[in-house]
Amino acid sequence: MPTTNPTQFSGWGNNFRSLAHLFSAGSADDLQNFVNSIHSSRGALPIGLHRSYGDSALNSGGTLIDLSALHSIQIDPATGIAVVGAGVTISALERAALKHSLFPSKFFDQDL
Ligand SMILES: Cc1cc2nc3c(=O)[nH]c(=O)nc-3n(C[C@H](O)[C@H](O)[C@H](O)COP(=O)(O)OP(=O)(O)OC[C@H]3O[C@@H](n4cnc5c(N)ncnc54)[C@H](O)[C@@H]3O)c2cc1C
Predict the structure, then answer these.
(1) Fewer CB within 10 Å: N-end or C-end of the chain?
(2) 10: Cα separation from own chain's centroid
(3) Which residues form ligand 1's pocket by a CB distance below 6 Å?
(4) Over the stretch 37-92, which tens digit does the pLDDT of each residue have?
(5) Could you tell me the CA-to-CA distances from 49 to 31, 53, 70, 99, 111 in Å, in that order?
(6) Of all atoms in ligand 1, which is nearest to the CA of residue 67?
(7) Across all residues in the chain, what is the average pLDDT?
(8) pTM, whole model, 2 decimals?
(9) First CA to last CA across the chain, in angstroms?
(10) Bridge partner list, 21
């Protein structure tokens, strides 16, 4: 699966920096196939928008997985339950929910 050459990343605080490969998942299947193919001892770490302050979204010598392309949002107006992709921002979820006169209030993981 294609990853970038080692690229420098930092957290929001810019106090820690490290080199890592980047894999951009285009779909859930893409992600599953990539995870199954990982052999590096440094493994792979999913990332969001790299806004955490410290090093929690860094993986020196390993791979970072960009999930921003997984941005599907399905809202059931009857139940108020939204099922979203891992790359969905709170902002995008708010905009989608407001179209149904809803606002995000509870977040939980669910096996799909
Ligand atoms: C200006 C500013 C204001 C802030 N204000 C607040 C605040 O008021 N309240 C608050 O709680 N926080 C606040 N934060 C902190 C920020 O909201 C959190 O650090 C948040 O986790 C950043 O989200 P991110 O998507 O950028 O995550 P990243 O920095 O990309 O990742 C953070 C961690 O989450 C993991 N992760 C990311 N995506 C996934 C995924 N899909 N699956 C599994 N793990 C994943 C990463 O591996 C990493 O360990 C603020 C940050 C900034 C810069």
Answers:
(1) C
(2) 16
(3) 12, 45-52, 56-57, 67, 86
(4) 988 899 999 998 888 989 999 999 999 999 999 999 999 999 999 999 989 999 99
(5) 17, 11, 13, 25, 23
(6) 41
(7) 91
(8) 0.86
(9) 24
(10) 63
